[in-house]
Design brief:
alpha/beta; Rossmann fold; 2 domains; seven-stranded parallel beta sheet; three-stranded antiparallel beta sheet; 14 strands; 34% helix; binds guanosine-5'-diphosphate; binds calcium ion; magnesium ion binding
Length: 329
Amino acid sequence: MGCVRVVVVAGGIGGARFLRGVRAAIPDAEVTALVNTGDDLTVHGMRVCPDLDTVMYTLGDGIDRARGWGRDGESWRVKDELAAYGADPAWFGLGDLDLATHLIRTRMLDAGYPLSAVTEALCARWRPGVRLLPMSDDRVETHVLVDAEPGPADAPRTGGGRRAIHFQEWWVRHRATLPAYGFVQVGLEAAKPAAGVLDALATADAILLAPSNPVVSIGTVLAVPGIRDAVRAAPGQVVGLSPIVAGAPVRGMADACLTAIGVATTAEAVGRRYGSRAWADGVLDGWLVDTADAAARVPGVRVEAVPLLMTDEAATTAMARAALTLAGV
Ligand code: GDP
Ligand code: CA
């Protein structure tokens, strides 16, 4: 038998940490990380791919571990200098070391290389030990519908006027505190899965949905035309891991995203949102929840409860092992 092939659908921090566990749990496997690019943006003329970079730096041992994103040993001199000019956006942190990645990426994209090829080139340095694939080589950017004139949080809503702002502006600048009424993926309809994505899914012995943001990470990847169907048609089992433990995101503000689309912040509700692969549009064969959520039930899906906190390497590896076992590999 050839080597086991595993595809992990991932966002940034949750996806990256989980991927370290998968790499350790099944070192001989061929692992493909299928990464969200809906958070990508252009700042100061540079193309930035936050989730791809978080995964690349984390698996390449270049991540700032405490912060969870960006380079270790980072400095911020360019950011300070840009601020001295009053350059917008001042709220998006670009570190000096990180800038080199964005400069190379932007230059290669401008020369006509697709993002998947650019990512491969960047990974030649970082050697993440897994194959990193962007969900699409086409530009897809998540925007958030907010009030046109946001007032104080407790002010009565007048209804009517909405505007769409880039996801990063909502997430980073406003810390997801502006009431959100939904998400729009600009460019989604015309987007195709990146080179290699459909092949990886069609030959996967297991597909794992990392404990990433279910709305703007996993949800966005699955929304790329062709990807959800390819996951549903894959030969291997599909197992998801809940990013929600005991009614709250383990870190970050995923609850604000779930609320915006009318889904409760519980492991059960997220599992039901992904749905059973036995039914139209569902993607799950198995759903892994934390032991705190052992009562969760998802119709048509095998639910198992194990500790789901990635507190250290051993705990993360055990989580990955449990997911692979539930997927039958
Ligand atoms: P982002 O793109 O950087 O926001 O990261 P992801 O989308 O990959 O992951 C964010 C999600 O990871 C959040 O909803 C967190 O709840 C989840 N997460 C982070 N750490 C853990 C953990 O230790 N266990 C679980 N189950 N989820 C986690
Ligand atoms: Ca992200």
